[in-house]
Amino acid sequence: MSKTVEFFFDLGSPATYLAYTQLPKICAQTGSQLVYKPMLLGGVFKATGNASPAMIPAKGRYMFKDLDRYAQRYDVPLKFNPHFPINTLMLMRAITGMQVRHPERFQAFIDCLFNALWVEGRNLDDPATVAAVLTENGFEPNAVLALTADEQIKTVLKENTEHAVQRGVFGAPSMFVGDELFFGQDRLDFVREALS
Asked: If we measure between CA atoms, which residue out of 115, 116, 118 comes closest to residue 132?
């Protein structure tokens, strides 16, 4: 039986960035497949009545300290983005578009965006900055922008988000092994156990 992790993600979550840095390694070690499921975290929050922990000042301060602890444990860079929170609608449409239309470039695409947001701390709310990041990484900004306007791509992202909510997702990162939901990058040990 093939083992699969479905990874429901949105770029705008620093905890999602940390899970993204670890899941490929976990899947390689357990002989499992990683399936990326882009979704719109804002849509999930709206549908479930949830909100970012960063919206509660004390919880937000704790969360970023805790994420730093995990980044050190995982030995990966993490920089608190001074432009947080980021409106990820266009970015997640672009990611969905790359996954649907150019799957061979999908991994490089999300790599450059996660890196720009959570390692370099760049302002991905600014179209000029997004264009610069894409150009630096060998992507054509106008072609990517065209993907974000594609009605089929918009529909796929909307359906991914609705499907996530129907399955019980309320935040990001959310991972499924079979029908079992694991929420949060601090639950990766349970994901590994479920795959083993």
From this structure: 116
Nearest CA among 35, 5, 15 for reference residue 106:
35
Is residue 2 predicted with pLDDT exceeding 80?
no
Catalytic residues, by residue number, are 13
Domains of the chain: 4-195 (3.40.30.10)
Q: What is the pLDDT of residue 149?
A: 96
Q: What is the pLDDT of residue 89?
A: 97
Q: Is 49 left (phi over 0), alpha (psi -120 to 50) or beta?
A: left
Picking from 188, 29, 17, 5, the residue whose alpha carbon sits closest to that of residue 110 is: 17
DSSP H or E run through 34: strand 33-38
Kindly tell me the sign of the dihedral angle through the C-alpha atoms of 160, 164, 12, 189.
negative
Q: How far is CA 10 from CA 14, 138, 160, 164, in A?
A: 9, 22, 11, 12
Residue 150's pLDDT is: 97
pLDDT at position 55 is 83
Q: How far is CA 49 from the centre of its chain?
A: 20
